[in-house]
Each structure stands twice: as C-alpha cells, then as structure tokens.
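Collaboration report, partner site 2.

Our partner group contributed sequences for two proteins of shared interest, and the home lab folded both. The records are reproduced in the order in which they were received, starting with the first partner submission.
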Amino acid sequence: MRREQRKNNNKSNSNTLIYISSGVLAVAIIAFIITFIVYSNKLNSNSSGILDTEYLSSNNENIIENTTSASSSMGKTVDESQNDIQNNNEVENNINEDKSKTTNNVENESKSSQNKVNNKTVETNVTQTEDEKEPKFQSPIESSDIIREFAKDNLIYSNTLKEWITHLGIDIKAEKATVVKAAADGTVKAIKNDPRYGLTIIIEHSKGYQTLYANLLTTEFVSEGEKVKAGQTIGTVGDTAVYEIVDDTHLHFEILKDNENINPNDYIKF
C-alpha cells in the first residue's frame, strides 16, 4: 500500500517536473524570439538612419551646388536680360524707324504716281476734249473766186472731159504757186499723187471730219502723220489735176464728214 502510494507520488512529481521544464523552455523560446525581433528592428532603424543621413547629406550638397549655380546664373541672367531688353528696344526702334521711312517713301511714291496718273488723265481729257470739239474751218487760200461749185446730187459740165459729171468739192481760182493753208487743226493723213486730181494732201480733223487739197504744185511743207494748225502752210497751187487741166489754175478743195463729201460753202464763207 505504501509502496503504491510512493509510486504514485513519484509519478506525480515526474509529471510536475516535465510540465515545469516545458513551461521554462517555452518561456525561453518566446524570450529569444522577442529579443531577436527587437534587435532586428534596432538594426533596421540604425541602418535606415545612416542611409537617410547620407542621402540628406548628398542632397544637401547637390542643393547647395544647384543653389549656388542658380544664384550666379540668375545674377548673370539679370544683367544680360537688361542688356537684351535694351538691345531689343534699340532694334525695335530701328525697325519702327525703317517702317516709318518705308511707309513715308511708299506714300510719297504713291502720291507721286497718283499725281502723274492724274496729270496724264487731265492731259488725256484735255486732248480728248480738244479732239472732240467741232472743228472751225477757214478758207485754205486767199481767194474767194469759185470757178466750179459743189455738185454731189446734180451734174455739171467738164470742159476737160467734155461731159456732165458730179463735182464733190469746190474749185477756187488762184495763181500758180499760191500758198495753200490748212483749213483747221488736224493731222496729215495722206500725201499722194491722185490719177484724177494730181498732187493731193488729206488732213484728218476731230469729229470725223477731213479736208482734201488737190491740183497742187508742191507738198514738201508737211509730211504724213504731222500735226498741223489752222492757217499753217501745207503746199502751193499747181496744175497737176488731169481731170481739170483745161480749167484755169485753181485749188480743188473738199470737206468730208465720216467719209461722206459735204458742201464746203456750208462751213466756210468765201
């Protein structure tokens, strides 16, 4: 009985030791784990701090260098900027002056060209006005002795041809070599030797008028295309008209309007 009781006590004590040993071991393991964790955190914290310090130191150096260069660069840029602004102002002023000069030159040239155009227009208008005026005719010769009248719609007898014919002008009696003058202002259209009326001068006037001077002796006083004034000498009286050779020396004179013969007596008093 006692022996069994002792065995039970020994067995109970063994179990108690086992439990205590297990608890101590567990506490030791937990303590080791906690110590390891704390130590690891401290190492990480110190390492992180060292890295941060080095990073901050490096960044500070870069910041200082950048700040210094930026500061000096800025100081330099301010001076250069002021110079650039002054230069830009000078360039802008020069450009504005050039623009002003160019504008003035263009305006002056434009005004000059416009004045020339206006002057030409005025001259052209004056010329056109003068050309458009009805011409005033005067006697082409200092004589009023008409030996053959204008006969466009009726017949007159020709001593030379010995027949009745029309006569598209008037014949003014004059001595040979008598001066013949332009009846009005105009331009010499033609100088020719007509087979019927001999040496002939035709002058063109404004408003479609023309005058014809035939049976001339000379025509060297004017040339084709020449502008003439009323009363200007253009030739002399002759006897070159084959169709009127039998008649006394005279000037054969015609006036035409739009290439149609009209009666000179309606425009000139002889």
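Second partner submission, folded after the first:
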Amino acid sequence: MHFSELGMRRRDGAPWYAELVLTRFEDIHGLRVVGDVYDITARREVERALKEAVEHERELNTLKTRFVSMVSHEFKTPLAAILMMVGVMERYGERLTLEKRADKLRGIEAQVAHMNQLLEDVLTLARTEAGTLPFTPEADGTTRFCRAQPG
C-alpha cells in the first residue's frame, strides 16, 4: 500500500484535501494497481484546529508561568520587609523607644495587609477564570443622575 496526500481545489476555488491509496496485487492477469481517493478535508481541518488549540494552550501555560513568577516576587518583597523589621526589633528592641517599636509593628501590619490584598487579588483572578465569581449588580442611581436636567 502506498499513501499520498494531495492539496486540491474544487471548481469554485475552495481547497480540499485528498488521500490517494494505491494497492498493488497480483491475479491471473498479472500485477495490478488499484487506486482509491478519499476526501480528507474534514480530517485536515480537525488537525489544524487541534494544532491551534495546542499552541493556544502553550501560550496560556507561558502566561501562567509568568504570572506565578510575578506573584512569587510580589510576595517576597513584603516578606523581606517583615523579616527586616522583625530582625531590627530582635536585635535592637530594648534600645528602641516605644514609638519606634510601635512604628515597626505598624510596618509589619501594613506589609501583612499588603500580602493579604495580593492573595485576595490572586483568588479573585482564580474565581474569574473558573467562572465562580459572583456577579451581583446593584442600582446606584447613575441612570437617574445622567437623565437629570441641569439647573
């Protein structure tokens, strides 16, 4: 058996793809070849769509990898600040005034709040992607405000 794929054009100019299958056999009349032609346009379209889907998945995976890297960096920054402030308090805590200690503690609280907000943002993105983010629009009077006549 021999297979060959051919790109063809219909009379109207539309492309189509054919698979030519040649089969050799021998009978009482000698060596013979039979050829069959199959329209494989649909199969080619499916293959093309699958290739595009795979490429799209690769792009999404690249974006997710970049996102995870960025989020990791964003979490490391406040953690480093927290560790630095804790280190200062451990080493110099007795020498710090109450005001300076309170300032360091407020700094730690601010960094923890920042990390919490980052985490909430990541969770919101995850819910959005999963389609589980609730959508509850509320009337806020904007339409009435826009229709109001000045004066």
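Feedback sent to the partner group on the second submission included the following. The mean pLDDT is 88. The first strand starts at residue 2 and ends at 9.
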